[in-house]
Amino acid sequence: MLTLNYRDSRPIYGQIKDGLRRMIVTGVLEPDERLPSVRSMAVDLAINPNTIQRAYAELEAEGFIYSVPGKGSFAAQHLKADPARQSELVRRLRELVAELRYLGLSDSEIISLMNEEVAQ
After folding, report:
1. Which letter does DSSP use for residue 8 in this model?
2. Closest Cα to residue 65, out of 54, 77, 53?
3. 35 near 75, Cβ under 8 Å?
4. 33, 36, 75, 105: most buried, per Cβ within 10 A?
5. DSSP letter at 67?
6. How far is CA 106 from the centre of its chain?
7. How far is CA 78 from CA 21, 55, 117, in A?
8. What are the pLDDT digits (tens) for 45-89?
9. Do residues 65 and 76 lie in contact, with contact meaning Cβ atoms separated by under 8 Å?
């Protein structure tokens, strides 16, 4: 499910959070699909359950997951647009486009790549 990179400068909970968010956004985890329990994920990844709990808490605060007492945590339905998050993603997209141009991709190649992703 998730893999951790101990050489990554991001904290472990951040890697877990990013990995789960990516799985939700790309549809690997369907809306309302149950996530592994904090305890089972901690055992699978051989890390402290508090680390998993922190990642889950932040994902819940951001609206990517929700929890049901006694039942567990679940992938949330598609989010309503959060203007701050949208602005951050647009900023990152602009940085990526600039870097792709720097690396020699033409605007038409970049647009083609984006069209491929949008079509999926």
Report:
1. S
2. 77
3. yes
4. 75
5. E
6. 28
7. 12, 19, 18
8. 999 999 999 999 999 988 899 999 999 999 998 776 678 878 888
9. yes
Whole-angstrom distance, CA of residue 58 vs CA of residue 2: 17
Q: Which two tokens stand for residue 30?
A: 């369907």
pTM: 0.73
Contact 52, 16 (CB under 8 A): yes
Which residues are within 8 A (CB) of 100 and not within 5 positions of it... i.e. 6 or more apart?
Answer: 109, 110
Q: Which two tokens stand for residue 61?
A: 């605060």
Task: Give the span between the Cα atoms of 99 and 23, in whole angstroms.
Answer: 25
Closest to 59 measured CA to CA, from 11, 86, 20: 20
Instruction: Please report which residue ranges of 26-106 form alpha helices under DSSP H.
Output: 38-45, 49-62, 83-102
* Side-chain half-sphere exposure of 45, counting CA atoms within 13 A: 24
Amino acid at 54: R
Rounded distance between C-alpha atoms, residue 75 and residue 57, angstroms? 13
